Amino acid sequence: MILIGQFDSPFARRVAIALKLYGVEYEHRPWSIFSDADKIAPFNPLCRVPTLVLDFGDVLIESAMILDYLDEQAGDARAMIASSGTERREALKVCARWVSPTRPSRLSTNACCTSKNRRCGSNAVRDRSSVC
Ligand SMILES: N[C@@H](CCC(=O)N[C@@H](CS)C(=O)NCC(=O)O)C(=O)O
User: Which helix (H) or strand (E) element contains residue 61?
Assistant: First the structure.
């Protein structure tokens, strides 16, 4: 399994923490969304991190989806997300939200690093004004 994304991204960090808690071995490729877009694009055309490349080649994006996948793989004994019902929905809600440590009252489900003129590849022009 390969985790793509630098740990300045809170979304990449939460996936790395989950991998550690579940005891999953992985290779880390700390690629930057700004300077390594060309490397990220073949795995994730959105050029976003985190991107998780599974051993059989499938690619997962969106940290909440990745957390749900890892939890499913962990099996009943280690799972932290309920398998069904209200408890599951509440847990998935928590996964879907990210509370900014600097602005705790603000919930964000959007990108922490926005980019104007988003284009992956060598001609990508990125706005670094809101780097996370
Ligand atoms: N909702 C996404 C947010 C991921 C996200 O915003 N990642 C940022 C880095 S912190 C990114 O890749 N930004 C690049 C872009 O949106 O072009 C998730 O939870 O994975």
Answer: strand 59-61
CB 61 within 8 A of CB 44: yes
Please compute the mean of the pLDDT values over residues 87-108 and round it to a whole number.
73
Spatial neighbors of 32 by CB under 8 A, at least 6 apart, are 6
Q: Which of 3, 59, 63, 113 to mutate to test the pocket of ligand 1 (most atoms within 8 A of CB)?
A: 113
Q: Which CATH superfamily is domain 2-108 in?
A: Glutaredoxin (3.40.30.10)
> Omega before 50 cis (within 30°)?
yes
Q: Which residue stretches of 1-132 are H helix?
A: 10-22, 37-40, 63-74, 85-96
The pLDDT of 53-82, averaged and rounded, is: 96
pLDDT tens digit sequence for 16-49: 999 999 999 999 999 999 999 999 999 999 999 9
Contact 49, 4 (CB under 8 A): yes
Where in the chain are the domains? 2-108
The alpha carbon of 12 and the centre of ligand 1 are apart by a number of angstroms equal to: 9
